Amino acid sequence: MKKICVLLLAVISFAAQSQVTYERIVAAASEPQNWLTYSGRYEGWRHSTLRQIDVGNVSRLSMQWTFQVADLGQFETTPLAVDGVLYGTGQNDRAYAIDARTGRTLWRYQRHLPDKVRPCCGAVNRGLAILGDRVFMATLDAHVIALDTRTGNLLWDVTAADYRQAYTFTVAPLVVKNAVIVGVSGGEYGVRGFIDAYDAATGRRLWRFDTVPGPGQPGHETWAGDSWKVGGAPAWITGSYDPDLNLLYWPTGNPSPSNYGGERKGDNLYSNSMLALDPDTGKLKWHYQFTPHDLYDYDATQIPVLMDATWEGRPRKLLVQANRNGFLYVLDRSDGTFLSAKPFGNVTWATAIDAQGRPMPNTALEAGAEGTQVCPGAAGLTNWFSPSYDPATQLLYVATSNQCDVFTSSPQTYRAGHDFLGSIYVPDPEQRPSGALKAIEVLSGKEKWSFPYHTTPNGGALSTEGGLVFGGDSDGNFIALDAATGRDLWHVQLGAAIYSTAITYSLDGKQYVVIPAGSGLFAFALPQQ
Amino acid sequence: MQTAQNDPVPIRTLMTMALIASLFWQAADARAPRPQAAKATNVAEGRSAFRTNCAPCHGLTAHGGGRGPDLTSGNWAHGGSDAEIFRTITGGVPGTEMPANVLDDGEIRSIIAFLRSLAPPVHQLVGGDPGRGRQTFTVGAGCAQCHMVDGNGGRLGPDLSRIGAARAVAYLVDSIREPDRELSSGPVDPNNHYGLPLPYDTVTVVTAGGERIVGVARNEDTFSVQLLDVDQNLRCFLKKDVREVIHERKSLMPAYPENALSASQLQDLLAYLVTLGRDRREPGKDQ
Are B194 and A379 an interchain contact pair (Cβ–Cβ within 8 Å)? Predict the structure, then answer.
């Protein structure tokens, strides 16, 4: 009888553990053995308190297993780690669950995509969200789906938008309470952007926030004529959330067409903005626009990092973002008050951000015969890949690019489902693009150290309490740096560009670090003693 | 735009077209359609579509970029009729970097209208002799020490087996007279979707012992560099083990000014180079 009770308890315990509740995600920091949401926790830190792998032993890291997703293209996923199982996605809307100890497959899901999906930049997907016994995925054909965590079976499937008009999803959803929140892609095709919330149980849409206001809505006046109808402002990176303020922070991308503004005179709200939304209703609480009337493709789709700190003598709830336009912004996240913006690399499009938070355009920009050289280039000083934030040091670790582009601009007729860029940009031929992983003091904006990458990066940063920052470069190197100094402590060549950012979890008392590269997930840990 | 850079797939798009495009100049193809009286609006749209989809490889003005050939030569190695160019754009060219493209018919037609609108090239060939040019290439000027053609020659510079089909004469002249002006590019890493091709610049590795090894980079990353040195040996280095890796934005190829290569020798050499990469088929006939 006693044995049966123990067994029963074990079963109950397993069942309880395998259910990821909203409360567990809110308290994700208290279970560092898991990785429950895209950035590891709602605050967008991508920082772990695990410390088994540290500065002294990281050089002994060795590969534990590899999982092949078996598809080509950019592998941008951030897997979730939940009680011994990893849940991830792959190119062309693949999803899978694998044994986090061995990399062995538990199930696979492959979406049958129509031929005419139009993702701008590869058939990518950045990951899943989890709640209860289901994982959620936003798909390239603009659907949102729920899969069973134990079988991969499709539980519900809803259409969010028309893929034939180039609406796509690449984002990893964010679960808040019972809502699965997603933002659309398609800023290269003149979509009208939105952020949606769906009921996790049924797939019913709970609300939609249009990122380009329609007639009668505040902000509509920032679009000339009918330009709002094809205004872009997609929302393709996962937002952050403050449970105490009950505010969802979701950034938006470029106005369409990205490189020609002649038909869309005005600030073009809410492109390139940070939106603070009520996650229960989708109502806008405040907004801040980083790059009004953008001509350089400066999507603001970078992770919002939420932190509390003393700012000019008083405690404030801050939102920090290293923006693609080259400035590190600090806002008060309770009301959106602009506090500061400082460049973290070579910026020429604006000379500064004024006290009201508005960029001061650089009137000295000179157009050459073939266009205008602007820094940063369209790839930005950084991009969608995650930064990490270490609360102990108040350092933000940001992968950066050093590349200027030559921009051209010309009118373009909108055609549904087709490229709508308004000309193009090419790399400055006089410059060899490069990159760096930088440690930046969040409050002062000062650079503490910089580790050079040979080429511009597409992978972000993971920091840990072991005093480490893990980065990945576009030449296939997965790298561990000393978080205090930026010194290279360990690296391994994985044979394909890294397009994502590492996660870490712990199982059987062993800390793992997992990174996608090529079509493989690679898991590293310390060798057994 | 969602990712770090503009998607290079369209970038590569017209590249093959340029391959196709190059010189067949004399063959200036009786069959090739006359430039059509394209509507100005089509040309403007085509220019825009060209910039978006083709310029990253073929250059903003279609005169060729780091990877894509010149599309203004007026001659088309893979067929110069509207239908043939259309097919090249939609289907790509197997075995080259020119991919198949998903563009709608109107966009493609506007791109063709734009290409037709470009000024025809000023022909710089004035009757050189290809046979003498070949001699100049292999012996006189020593080009073959570094450049390979159809499996013969050196390895340090780009393989020129298809150069006649890839570049306009003006580009060839610049490359010979002033090789530093625009560096050629090597292949793109297929595992790095947003990567740029390696330039044929001069790289010097200074070893810990002070030895200077000069060559072109076959590859390089944050931690290592792989060279083909001037003796045409592959040399691989860890950056931590060497004193310095120096990039000079200049070509290893020496310049050939008039006192090194006379105007008539240049014409002969060009006459030879433009034959390289010609299809074996009879010009102007479909295969």
Answer: yes
